[in-house]
Amino acid sequence: MTRVILTYADYAALPDDGRRYEVHEGELSVTPAPNIRHQRVNLNLCDVLLHHVRSRQLGEIFVAPTDCILADTTVVQPDIVFVDAPHASRVSERAIEGAPTLVVEVLSPSTERIDRARKLDLYARHGILYYWIVDPDGRIIDAYALGAGAFRLAGRLAGDEPTTLPPFDDLRLDPGVLWA
After folding, report:
1. Rounded to two decimals, what is the model's pTM?
2. Which CATH number fits the domain 34-178, given the four candidates 3.90.1570.10, 3.40.50.720, 3.40.50.12280, 3.40.50.970?
3. Predicted local confidence at residue 173, as pLDDT
4. Domain-wise residue ranges, the chain
């Protein structure tokens, strides 16, 4: 049996039915809408990052659903996306076209396996420099940095103490704000 490889054109023709569609190297990925806890944590983190990035004119923050076209056969919608100022030309009217600087995925029961494995590899292959995996239930953020074509754990927020995570070395993330 021949495998059908989907492209951005196929993706753009999908129905607007409330599901979250992505294309991972030509293969369709469909997940349900995130739960309320996921959305609360996502909004809290986005608020903190947005204020930090805007106040320092570091680039732009986007929140899902925002298409990131990493290749014609790879289109994703991370929960939060940061494009630093030197790469502003990657932001077009239709999408972020090319690798953003940072992608953030907030775990949900339906996406945890994909976010921790498939997307970890996918994002590294497409040259995304930083990847945060946010676990609302464990109250942990694992921050990965790209090096030699693979991600390595570069920082972790866990417990109650504020900490910094790359690429924002001057932003102390307060767990009390994030998990509220």
Report:
1. 0.95
2. 3.90.1570.10
3. 97
4. 34-178
